[in-house]
Amino acid sequence: MSNTAQSLASTRIASLLDENSFVEIGGQVTARSTDFNMAGMETPSDGVITGYGVINGSLVYVYSQDASVMGGTIGEMHAKKIARLYEFAQKTGAPVIGLVDCAGMRLQEATDALNGFGEIYMAQAMASGVIPQITAVFGTCGGGMALIPAMTDFTFMESKNGKLFVNSPNALDGNHVSKCDTASADFQGEEAGLVDFAGTEEEILGQIRNLVSMLPANNEDEAYTECEDDLNRACADLANCAGDTGILLSQLSDNGIYFETKAAYGKDVVTAFIQLNGATVGAVANRSEIYGEDGTVKEKMDGTLSARGAKKAADFVNFCDAFCIPVLTITNVTGFKATKCSERTMAKNAAALTAAFANATVPKVNVVVGKAYGSAYVVMNSKSIGADMVFAWPNAEIGMMDAKSAAKIMYEGSDAATINEKAAEYATLQNNVTSAARRGYVDTIIEPEDTRKYVIGAFEMLYTKREDRPDRKHGTV
C-alpha cells in the first residue's frame, strides 16, 4: 500500500476534524473474499477509514475512501463499515460526512459488492431527514457510487480531480469528454444541480466545517449560537440589494454569516443559511442580478422564477422543514420563466415548491421587497400557502401582473391615453402594497432598513409554533 495515498485518506480526515479528535472504528477490517486471487491480497481497512471526531466541538461521523487499496472500490466489508457508521450516527444523532475517492464496485466480489451498495443506500434512506448527510468528492465517483452523494443533503466536489457520473462522458452517445465533460464539477454544479460547492481540497474541507457549524446535529436538535450582533441593527443600504439578494441576506444575518447552497444552479433563486439572533435560518430569495467582488454587475436575470430555481428552492425548503430550521423568503418575482427549456419541467417544479412551502410546519416569514406578480408570487411562500408573517417594503407591488399589461388586456383596442389612465388606476387599486395589506395579504409594511429587527421579532414570536397536518403517510407532489 502506498504510504502517500494512505496518508491522503487519513490526512483528509485530520484536516476536516478538530485536532487529535478522530477515533477510528474497524481499522483491522479486511476483505474476506478469496475469489480471483483475493486470498493473497492485502486490503488494509478494506479501502475505507471510518470513525468519529468533532468539528468545533460537535460530534460527527466520517468515512474516507483510500484509493491506494484496490482503487478505493466498494466491496462487502467496505460497505458494511460505512453502513455500520450510519447505525452509530442515527443512534447518537450526529451528521455523517463521506470523503469519496472510489473506482466504483469491486468486480472481484460481484454480488457481495452489489449487496453492499444496497446496504449503503438503505442506510442513507433511513437516515434522510434524521441526521444531516454530507459528501465530498475528491477523486472518482462513478456508476452506482454516484447515487451516494445524490442521496445526501449536501455535496462538495474538488474542481480538478473530482469526477462524478453514472455513465462516463465517453459512454454517452454522440459525446466525448473533450466535447462535454459531464463528470466535471462544473457540469454537476451548473447543469445537474447536484454539487453545492466546488473548489480546492482545502477550500472544501473548510466549507464543510462552516456548514456543520450552522446545522443542527439531528432532526430533534436546534442550531443555535450566542448572538453578538445588535438585534435592532439598521441595514441602511438594504434597499439597494433587492436585485442581488445574496448580498441582502448577508447584510441581514448576524455578523454577515452566510452559507449559500447550489450557487451555480438555478441562479435566479438564492438558497442559503444565515443566522438571526444566533439561530440558523434557511433563506430562499428571488434574484435578478449578481454582483462581483469589484462591485459591478457580473450577471443579470430577467426577474422571473425558472424551473431550476423552483426545484432548488423546493429541495432546500424540504431540508429545512425536516430539520426544524425556520424559513425566510425574500420575494421579488415578475412571473415564471418563459423558455422552451424551462417549460419542460416548470409546472412540476413550481408545484413541488408550492407543496414544500405548504407542507412545511416550521416558522415561515416572507418579505416582499419588489414586484410580486401572479402565481410565481403565490408559490414564493405567500400568505395563501402558509406564510406565518408577511412583510413588505413600501415600494412593493403585489398583484396579477404589471399595471400597464393588465390595462392593455382589459381595455384592448383603447387609445394610449385610456390605457395609461386605466393602468394608473389599476396600480392604485390592485398592485399597491397598501391594497394588499388592507386585504390581509401583508401583515406589516416596513422600511427596508428595519427589515432585520422585524424579521428577528417575527421568528422570536413564532419560536413555539405548533401546527398539525392531515394524518397521512406522506404527500405525493
UniProtKB/TrEMBL annotation:
InterPro entries: AccD/PCCB (IPR051047), AcCoA_carboxyl_beta (IPR034733), ClpP/crotonase-like_dom_sf (IPR029045), COA_CT_C (IPR011763), COA_CT_N (IPR011762)
Keyword Membrane tagged: no
Residues in CoA carboxyltransferase C-terminal domain copies: 230-461
PANTHER family membership: PROPIONYL-COA CARBOXYLASE BETA CHAIN (PTHR43842), PROPIONYL-COA CARBOXYLASE BETA CHAIN, MITOCHONDRIAL (PTHR43842:SF2)
GO CC entries: acetyl-CoA carboxylase complex
Keyword terms, alphabetized: Transferase
Annotated CoA carboxyltransferase N-terminal domain residues: 1-234
This protein's name: Carboxyl transferase
Keyword Transferase on entry: yes
